[in-house]
Amino acid sequence: MVRTYGYIEQNTLSDGVNVLENKMKKFGGPAFFIDRNDINTDEIIPAKYLTEISKQALQPHLLEDLHLEGTLFDPHAKELQEASVVVTRSNFGCGSSREHAVWAFEVNDINIVIAESFARIFRQNMFNCGILAIELSASDIDRLFKLQGKVSISVDTDNEELTATPEGNEQAPITCTFTLNPFDMKLVQAGGWLAYADQNY
């Protein structure tokens, strides 16, 4: 079951009036698998794009410089364009602590990244942007990678549980549990730090 949460987004009208709009945050969807450890922020969004003045300008450059040994990676692959979830290995988001790396996921509608571990600052930047960073054991990550074909992942944040469902009936769904600290959970459910602050301060 994909959980949906309400949050508030502030927009500015042409006459300068700020308007608070109710938005809905959904977690889950088609998954894209990247079988590599230590993917760094330079590979997620190359440094030459850090001068862009809008998040949207980062959208076409997600994972542009990613290198996979023995495999030609296509950052414009249809499977990545359609994905809402990324599944990868350990130490994801290492290197520079730039927020742009998380923004590149945000503007590509990636709402969950699942890994064995994350770089600490990158992980917190994800929660600040309202994106779920889910850590699973190496054995659970291996189970996910063994799934064949197209996979959809849904997340129940209330029960801290995710379910990966392969397309077709040949493979059974896989369910894994995870843990989030209460404050990170509140950030994600609110839609990120700015929305949380609007609601609570």
Q: For the CA atoms, what is the radius of gyration?
A: 17 Å
CATH architecture descriptor: Alpha-Beta Barrel
Biggest sheet statistics: 7 strands, mixed
Mean of all residue-level pLDDT scores: 88
Alpha-carbon distance between the two ends: 31 Å
Strand-residue proportion = 25-35%
Strand arrangement in the largest pleated sheet: 6-5-4-3-7-8-9
> What is the element string, with H for helices and E for strands?
EEEHHEHEHEHEEEHH
Question: Pairing-aware structural class of the strands and helices?
Answer: alpha/beta
Tally of individual domains: 1
Uncertain residue ranges: 1-24
Shape: globular
Summarize the structure.
The chain is α/β, with parallel strands linked by helices.
Account of the protein in words:
- The chain is of the alpha/beta class.
- It has a single domain (27-200), classed as Aconitase, domain 4, CATH 3.20.19.
- Helices cover 25% and strands 25% of the residues.
- Strands 6-5-4-3-7-8-9 form a seven-stranded mixed sheet, with helices on both faces. It has a two-stranded antiparallel sheet with strand order 1-2.
- The longest helix has 9 residues, at 120-128.
- The protein is globular, with a radius of gyration of 17 Å.
- The two termini are 31 Å apart.
